[in-house]
Amino acid sequence: MRRLIAMSAPLMLAGCGGNQSPLSPGGDQAVALYNLLLLSIVVCGIIYVLVLAGLGWGLYRRRTGSAVDQSALDRGVWVAAGVILVGLTVLIVGSFLADRAVFATRGRDAMKVRVTGHQYWWRIEYRDAATGRWIETANELHLPQGRTTRVSLGSADVIHSFWVPNVAGKLDMIPGRRNLIDLTPRQLGWFRGQCSEYCGAQHAHMAFDVKVEPPAAFDAWLAAQALPAAAPSDPVAQRGAAAFAGPCAACHVVHGSAAAGRAGPDLTHLAARRSIAAGTLPMTRGNLQGWITQPQALKPGTMMPTIPLNPADANAIAHYLATRR
Amino acid sequence: MTPDQGQHDQLAATWRDPPGLWGFLVTVDHKRIAARYIVTALLLLFLAGMLALDMRWQLSVPENTRMSPQLYNESFSLHGSTMLFLVSVPIMEAMAMWLVPLMLGARNMAFPRLGAFSFWLYLGGVLTLWIAHAMDITPDLGWFEYPPLAGPNYSPGHRADIWAQMITFTEVAALCASVNVTVTILKMRPPGMTLARMPVFLWAMLIASIMTILSMPAIMLVTSMLISDRLVSTHFFSAAAGGDVVLFQHLFWFFGHPEVYIIFIPATGFVSAIVETFSRHRLFGHSVIVLSIISIGALAFGLWVHHMFAVGLPRLGNDFYTAASMAIALPAGLQIFCWIATIWSGRPRLDTPMLWMLAFFATFVIGGLSGVMTASAALNLQLTDTYFIVAHFHYVLVGGALFPLFGAFCYWYPKATGRLMSERWGKVALAAIVGGFNLGFFPMHLLGLLGMPRRVYTYPAGMGWDLLNQIATAGSVISVLGGLVFVANAIISYWRGAPSGPDPWQGSTLEWATGSPPPPWNMDYIPVVHSAAPLWDDEPRLPVMQGLANDHREVLITSVTDSAPIYRHKSSGPSIWPVIAALAVSVMFIASIFTAWAVPIGTALIGVALTGWFWPQRGRATTGPLGVRS
Q1: CA of A194: which chain B residue's CA is closest?
Q2: Which residue of A103, A181, A211, A228 shows the fewest CB atoms closer than 10 Å?
Q3: Do B370 and A68 touch (CB under 8 A)?
Q4: Which chain A residue shows the shortest CA-CA distance from B322?
Q5: How crowded is residue A57: how many other Cβ atoms within 10 Å of its Cβ?
Q6: Ramachandran region of residue B522, left (φ > 0), alpha (ψ -120 to 50) or beta?
Q7: Section B146-155 average pLDDT
Q8: Which of B327, B340, B450 sits opposite A54 (nearest CB)?
Q9: Which residues of A are less than 8 Å from B459 in CB distance?
Q10: Looking at the complex, does the CB of residue B291 fall below 8 Å from at least one CB of chain A?
């Protein structure tokens, strides 16, 4: 009985899954997978209880010492095999149907997004349906509620895997290939995604934020992302921009400035994001400065090198980036 | 069988090893070699278990900085590689090497020197990996080192090469051991032990060995491709140069999936033997169990793709592999029902080996059922690479293979040592290991469902994972403490245990018909059997065959299906050449981490060793009557 409770614990926990959990589905694909998960847990739980009950009764009846009818036992074994067969058939059919639901083609009107995995961050590009232009950002995926987004997954280096369990299942990002996954979020709010294929030293810190918002808010957000960042206004930010143009601009791009590096994340609207360093730290002015000066201490093995900066420059760069909204 | 004293002395003189260190090096006694194999593997089990404990400690609180990411990544890579390649598969082969000739009433394995060679080569692989660990060049890319991460661009240095060569070592060793077990079972069964009468244990070892022979070439091929990408710049796995990283995964899992069953099927042999003995009833559905094993073995080759459901392969293909993967639950379930029916039929005795079997049922079935869940291509999109998978495969491997192995250890311990292990301490160890294991690993199912990915050295607070991780860590500690009690019991019982006599459990198979521990020649006479449980059916006196020479090492070869005597065969005696050959192969494998020249030079060295090994010896006539005395 204790095991029965243990096996059904996921059912009870279903209500309290977090913002990175298959147990609190907030999108069509995740709901299909969640229903299949419940079906599987119920079928497997029943079979487990039956098997252990058979074993327990077999052990118990030795005390009674009664002889067993061998032909009845024979039939019992075949009946049990039949039960397994029925259970498996249910699960195979269920799996097939869920698979179809997750990969159902949603027509050509889906919004197109390209996500590329890097050690250890995410390049995210939206195709502007009106202009055909690609609008780039990083480490934060925005999705319009109720619309289907078709995400094309690729990798710039090693194999990664794109996983936002609350919205859909995972799919690998493989060099030389592109995988397509559809996301149809229904529930508004913030979710967390994480790389789920081991990709090196900082696999643990390759996460991203997902924001599901009403279509109008999404459109406004995307329009803002398409704009170049405002020119630095105050003197500290101007000093920061100048310092940034040295070592940082080799890897990072800030549209509206001379920085046009491609190796690292696009920082044009960095301060509008919720977190920095691929979900490692919350976006604050202090964290930005800590990250700029000591990336290897905060995320050992990250590809961002430690740049020797004098404190005034570091402060100015942090201030400059904190105004990139 | 009352031994004839003169014959006994003559056999002792013929089968004796030279004394001292030289004897240690040159022995070809399958029991001595297998015991070394088992002790080495158990030591590694302990070391890799300590790594696991270290990792659990790291994960017991969020944002822990006790371990560096590099150290954590090395730890799980070394833990997985050691457990899968250096513990699980070798220990099952070693159990086969120890038990198969005894259960056949044969005097040695079919190829005694090959058995010795396989151990020395395995030791080479063990030392390569663990000396590299001591030198801080531990592989750090997981136990299945996918390129391009393991390729030359993203893994400079020699960590990935060491992993790849360690695989090659252990796979060559495994191949040798498997060929040896296969031929021994097929050609050295005693007269009368037809395939239909062969105990399930021998069937399991036969099927696992054949599976090894069929699957190992895939992994040796793929690690060699990886090595050549790294060493001589081929581009098998470089997408930019027209290679394909997914090719690695196909080849790896074409081996990697059957490997799970190569570990599990021998365990079903242990379960069958122990359930039969302790239920005091003939195994229910002998032929159903054998057919189940064969079909599991065959199906295991048809479902490697279920490790790749998130790769983005064609969906319809994935559905096929879903059905194939789930189908394996049917023969596996049938086996379990047959064991349960055996318990129903008999009057079960709950000694420690049998209690391990009950722990096996309760634990393995959870692993089997979570396996059915992970077999679903769709569900995999949420489950793969999460802690759910970590929970699943530990339930399968620990519950399905390690618990039966511990039971088997307790069951055959008196045969190997002549003494019984303490029942009381055996039960204490069992309770701690089984309880701690379930406490430690059950919460991981929930962690996976709550979204915790595997292979992360830390995780943020506030994800709802903290408490479950702490429970998991506590369970692991209890389990390891139980393991220490188990080991202490084994060591102390070696000197203090109650003398067991030849057959303490009233077993049904031939190994119980000889002394404990068995003499180097195993049995004075080759038995003749008439059923699958000869000791139960032919008591009090087992019919035997006579006519084998006593004054030189001679074994009996029988026909494959009906086990009729065919001829007498001269068996190899002690030789240093297996050690030298293993050394030559080791030089080639290790040097080829650094230079391609190792291949021609190493080949020449191996040629020298094999020339010595196979140098023609003066033959002996193997004619003369073979008679059966009943």
Answers
A1: B453
A2: A228
A3: no
A4: A92
A5: 12
A6: left
A7: 95
A8: B340
A9: 204
A10: no
Handedness of CA B193, B198, B202, B206 (dihedral sign): positive
Determine the distance from the C-alpha atom of residue B446 to the mean position of all C-alpha atoms in its chain, rounded to a whole number. 30
- B313 touching A (Cβ < 8 Å): no
H or E, element range at B70: helix B69-81
Task: Look at B343 and A88 and tell me if their CB atoms are within 8 Å.
Answer: no
ipTM for the predicted complex comes to 0.94
Cα separation, B521 vs B550, in Å, equals 10
pLDDT greater than 60 at residue B230: yes
Q: In this structure, which amino acid lies at residue B155?
A: S
CB–CB of B395/B441 below 8 Å? Answer: yes
Q: Torsion over CA of B65, B66, B69 and B73, rounded to 10 degrees?
A: -150
**Count, residues in chain B:** 630
Q: How far is A304 from chain B (nearest CA, A)?
A: 16
Helix B329-345 to helix A70-102 angle (10° resolution) is 160
Is B240's Cβ below 8 Å from some Cβ in A? yes
- Per the listing, tokens 């140098």 go with B615
Query: Alpha-carbon distance B403 to B422, whole Å?
Result: 18
CB interface of A with B, residues 119-178, below 8 Å: 119, 153, 157-159, 161, 163, 165, 168-172, 174-177
Residue B268, pLDDT above cutoff 80:
yes
A21 and B284 within 8 Å at the Cβ level: the answer is: no
**In the numeric block, which tokens belong to residue A70?**
């061998």
Cα gap B218→B224, rounded to integer Å: 10
Closest to B90 (Cα-Cα) out of B124, B64, B59, B60: B124
| Cross-sheet strand order for the sheet of B544-546 | B526-527, B544-546, B627-629
Distance of CA B386 to the CA centre of its chain: 26
Which residue in A7, A8, A34, A44 has the most chain B C-beta atoms within 10 A of its own C-beta, making it the best mutation to test that interface? A44
Token pair recorded at residue B195: 């395939």
What three-state secondary structure class fits A164?
A: coil
Q: Mean of the per-residue pLDDT values for chain A? A: 91
Q: Which residues of B542-570 are buried (b: 16+ CB within 10 A; e: fewer)?
A: bbbbebbbbeebbbbbbeeeebebeebee
**Predicted pLDDT at B628:** 52
Smallest CA–CA distance from B240 into chain A, residue:
A176
Phi, psi of B629 (to 5 degrees): -110, 125
Residue with tokens 């704009």: A227
Task: Note whether B378 contacts A59, CB cutoff 8 Å.
Answer: no
Two structure tokens written together for B404: 């039966």
The per-residue pLDDT for B620 is: 55
Whole-prediction pTM value? 0.95
Q: Are B573 and B566 in contact (CB under 8 A)?
A: no
Task: Say whether residue A80 is in contact with chain B using an 8 A CB cutoff.
Answer: yes
**Closest by alpha carbon to A191, among A119, A135, A142, A136?**
A142
> Residue B174, Cβ neighbours under 10 Å: how many?
28
Residue of A nearest to B344 (CA): A58
Q: Which two tokens stand for residue B572?
A: 């190899």
> What is the Cα–Cα distance from B208 to B452, expressed in whole angstroms?
34
Q: What is the mean pLDDT of residues A270-275?
A: 96
Would the CB atoms of A99 and B361 count as touching at under 8 Å?
Answer: no
Token couple for A253 = 């791009």
CA distances from B107 to A68, B92, B93, B287, B554 (A): 40, 20, 18, 27, 8
Rg from Cα positions in chain B: 25
CB A230 within 8 Å of CB A143: no
Helical axes B423-449 vs A2-13, angle rounded to 10°: 20
Nearest Cα neighbor of B444 from B463, B478, B469 is B469
Q: Residues A198-228: pLDDT tens digits? A: 999 999 999 999 999 999 999 999 999 999 9
The phi-psi region of residue B624 (left if phi > 0; otherwise alpha if psi is between -120 and 50; otherwise beta) is left
Q: Which amino acid is at A189?
A: G
